[in-house]
Amino acid sequence: MRGLWFRIVLALSVVFAFGLAQAQAADRIPVKVVVVTTFEIGADTGDFAGEFQPWVEGWPLKHEIAIPGVRHVARYSDDGVLAIVSDMRGRARDSVAALILSDQFDLSKAYWIVAGIAGVDPQAASVGSAAWARYVVDADPIYEVDDRDIPAGWPYGLYSNDAEKPNVKGKAEGSSAMVWTLDRGLVDWAYALTKDVKLPDNAALQAVRAPYKDAPQGQRPPFVLQGDALGTVRFWHGHRRTQWAQDWVKLWTDGAGTFTMTDCEDQGILDVLDAHAASGKIDRRRVLVLRTGSNYSRAPLGQTSLPHVFHEESLKASFLATFAVGGPVVRELTAHWDRYASEIPTAGSR
User: Fold this and answer.
1) Alpha-carbon dihedral 259, 265, 267, 272, rounded to 10 degrees
2) Of the candidates 323, 40, 45, 83, which has an alpha carbon nearest to the alpha carbon of residue 200?
3) In whole angstroms, how far apart are CA 9 and each of 2, 14, 20, 182?
4) Gyration radius from the chain CA atoms
5) Separation between Cα atoms, residue 227 and residue 26, nearest integer Å
6) For the chain, N or C: smaller number of CB within 10 Å?
């Protein structure tokens, strides 16, 4: 008799748990696109815009929602777009993980766009330009020696874990995957959709570009390109560090990547997305990284830009460019969700 009652109780427990899971799933907000920005300046609307405000006002994102573990209130729209402020550097990991683990949303089919500003290599592009990344490369697991103490012949004092000199690929087991490859078909599709977007330009931006006479790409009016992102929580700047970044991206992508943008969050965000991909909560293939140039990664040849690394006009242009370029991709995904929910787009599919 006890065995019968035990089986009845067990069966009822399974039915109850299944019913509860279905009810919880039904209560989750279905999300088509997640936009991850990293900071905002002041209010979310009506003042000097940071990364978040152009999406809040431009979409618009009318609904607010608090997500436990995410410090800044999130916003979402009736057509399935959710945007968060992850905060910068190490906090971005916490925020993205909190979002994925929240029971408030169904993210299983969501596309992700990391949309933020970055330093730009003048050899690759100009301030105000927007780059869709093919690779994200981690530069946090690294050995560092004071440049004043480096051995003769070293170009800089940065080198891989478990290596003995620069430009030798070491190991980062237990620390990082070091390089994440984004879905090439999706990246090509996003680029094809936006490559002709006209980005803002003015006399102030032209004045910022003008001294970079050794870098033709850095003197161009703002444009859309494909170019890869290097992520490290520390802010860096300078000629030697730019050379290191170029070398580091080449090293870890086996020569396939081109250093274009430098930021403080992409490596952490991609690491978290990878960690949760096997759970089915997210689809790692549906991730895009869009970075816009807010400042050059080095000064013009023969000059120093410190302490004036940032210029107000290039900051404004980079904030606007994230939405000007990212917006059309999100519009296309939401407008044709009947297709893109099950079919990841590739170049030529519209």
Assistant:
1) -160
2) 323
3) 10, 9, 16, 48
4) 22
5) 40
6) N
pLDDT in tens, 187-223: 999 999 999 999 999 999 999 999 999 999 999 999 9
Q: What is the pTM of this model?
A: 0.91
Those residues with Cβ within 8 angstroms of residue 15's Cβ, 6 or more apart along the chain or in another chain = none
pLDDT band of 348, cuts 50, 70, 90 = confident
Q: Which residue, among 168, 146, 164, has the nearest Cα to 156 in the 3D structure?
A: 146
